[in-house]
Amino acid sequence: MRTIWMMLRASVVLMALILLYQLAVLGIAQAAMPDKANGSLIYNESHEVVGSRLIGQSFTDPSFFHGRVSSIEYDAGASGTPNYAPSNPDLLQRLADTAEAWKRENPNVPVNELPIDLITNSGSGLDPEISPDAARVQIPRVSEATGISAEELERMIRDHTRGRDLGFLGEPGVNVLQLNIEVQQRTAQ
Amino acid sequence: MTIYSWVAILVTLGLAVLIAKPAGLYLAKAFDYEKNGLDRWFGPVERVIFHASGIRQGNQTWKMYALSAVLSNLAMMLIVYLIFRLQGFLPLNPSGVSNMEPTLAFNTVVAFMTNTDLQHYSGESGLSYFSQMIGIVFMMFTSTATGVAAAMAFIRGLAGKPIGNFFVDLVRAITRVLLPMSFVSALIFAALGVPQTLASSAIAHTLQGTEQQIARGPIASFLSIKQFGNNGGGFVGVNSAHPFENPGGFSNMLQILLMMLIGTSLPFAYGKMVGNAKQGRVLFVSMLMMFIVMLGVLLSAESAGNPAFHALGIGHDQVSMEGKEVRFGMAQSALFATVTTATETGAVNTMHDTLTPIGGMVPLANMMLNTVFGGAGVGIMNVLMYAMIAVFLSGLMVGRTPEFLGKKLEGKEMKLIAVNLLVTPFLILAPTALALLAYPDTISNPGFHGLTQAIYEFTSSANNNGSGFEGLGDNTPFWNIATGVVMFLGRYFSIVVLLAVAGSLAAKKPVPVTSGTFRTDTALFGGVFLIIVILVGALTYFPAIVLGPVAEHLTLRP
């Protein structure tokens, strides 16, 4: 009995110590890097949150660059994928549907030129990025819908491309939200 | 694969190998009961903890040690169970999460206390910040500490020293190892963009004029212990695939290094503690070789892509990106998947359910073998158990009494080990059969892959990994209770039995080493060890592997 009491006491003491650690990290992070600690949010001129640099958004309008397939439609109150096995017939059906939609919206770019990341569901359903190739194949559509020249869009994609961390870690990606913010600003002018 | 992918893999693994030995020597020192320089730094804090908890510091017998571990873990589970069940009434709940359902709360406390971190809930909607910080993170620290403590007691027993005191080891693991490293890496993660806030979800007004709710929370301090302690349960549902829980290539590498740190350093700590550094090195190299083979298989399977895609004329010659994130790409996803299952962490940065069939077989095989580094503490125990089997079988073959570290391995020890060896496959295969017969509707993918989903879930539970083929509809009373029981037995049965082996060996008189003694610190022994691991694994799981991933692979080929 005395041992059980000691174990419960020890649990509470360790709980307090571990909470203290988390609060210390909280204090330092909030003081030293409040922007990142609060979710890397992006604000517009009227100080409204338009999104997060790290979280993807759903884009369906032809005048925007589109992100990756997301079964949760970029609902960042949750996260997830349908977890289709490579052999799942539903996966192949979704793929065929995506290809059909692509043909409708991008009549000038053949389906077999599609980069794989544009037709597959990301792991999180919130992937903020697409590969530079996946951005480039969308240039004809966006250019037609917005009137921005292809060369200009090419430059914007380059500007929003993140290289590999330390030059070799991971893969390069284009931040779709930040790219589209610039597209929107240009269209509004 | 590009040159960058190869460089990234080589640099990451190179760093892991470089830090393993110094970290191992530090571990050996941190748990040494002789006075040393570390006492000056950590002694004052530890004395406060001992005093406040009423911990007495004398040596325990192996039975008392094992009992203390199991009972204290039960006490912690009870406290956290109550927190989960009452979280709706408790503070720090800005998103208004309601109380957790009983079978799910049972599953979750067992999952985190056993270092498994199987998750049948989604963090964004299932747990309040209070439950995450006081419940989950607390158990992440103490479960890792329990595993490391058990390993230290086991090694002391093998070395013929007193087993030690569970509570002293538990506290030392937290103060000397887990807290300092978690603190530093949490700050690095925060600097890389991982949120650390108590504010509720942000509401964004998107460019297309809709509202987007963005879940966030105190993730940085959660993430570091999740990886360092080989826990693996995510703050959010999709774990380290979520951009908040793994924002880029650098955070990804750091997470991989944290996952590998304890598992790779323990062989060196072991070598130091038993006074045979060479043997520790032999075990380390053997495990590294298995790791490299596993990684190679996974990389080649994933870079071949999905043939079913190619048949549609899409994505020809491209790698498989379903369930993966752009910032990691195929190679960093494959490396992460290999590490997370080898070290029994269970965090994921890619969805294992969506891996190609042979690709998905690698995580499964890593968990089934449970000797490719293995989880915090329990990994090295399992490895040493296989080393003893190797010694025993070699002894039988040459007709000599087998010896390990100068102690005779006899019937008693081998019986305990044999029972332990049989329990894990039973815990995996029997409930899988039950699930397939009674609850086939919870399995989301048709065909052979469905079988793999069920086997994966129980393999992950029994070996305390915690990753899942997440398509499984697993938040049902059946899956919650079945996996809860499997996790509990998979963890504590093996810890208690192996401590019994150590206790039994510690009580024996050492036999002098002669020229006829089978050396256990040579490359030959490393080879025998590897053969035994693969033989035992293959004999046990081969039918399941053939019916699951291999059959699926064959059906995909045109």
From TrEMBL, chain A:
Report the main location listed first in the record: membrane
Q: Keywords in alphabetical order, please.
A: ATP-binding, Cell membrane, Ion transport, Membrane, Nucleotide-binding, Potassium, Potassium transport, Transmembrane, Transmembrane helix, Transport
Organism of this sequence: Paenibacillus mellifer
Matches recorded under Pfam families: KdpC (PF02669)
What is the protein name for this chain? Potassium-transporting ATPase KdpC subunit
The topology of this chain with respect to the membrane is:
Single-pass membrane protein
Q: Which family does it belong to?
A: Belongs to the KdpC family.
General function of this protein: Part of the high-affinity ATP-driven potassium transport (or Kdp) system, which catalyzes the hydrolysis of ATP coupled with the electrogenic transport of potassium into the cytoplasm. This subunit acts as a catalytic chaperone that increases the ATP-binding affinity of the ATP-hydrolyzing subunit KdpB by the formation of a transient KdpB/KdpC/ATP ternary complex.
Membrane-crossing residue ranges in chain numbering: none
> Which compartments does it reside in?
Cell membrane
Q: Which PANTHER family match?
A: POTASSIUM-TRANSPORTING ATPASE C CHAIN, POTASSIUM-TRANSPORTING ATPASE KDPC SUBUNIT
Q: How does it assemble?
A: The system is composed of three essential subunits: KdpA, KdpB and KdpC.
Report a single Gene Ontology molecular function.
P-type potassium transmembrane transporter activity
Q: Which domain of life is it from?
A: Bacteria
An example GO CC term for this entry is: plasma membrane
Report whether Secreted shows up as a keyword of the record.
Answer: no
What HAMAP family is this protein classified in?
A: KdpC (MF_00276)
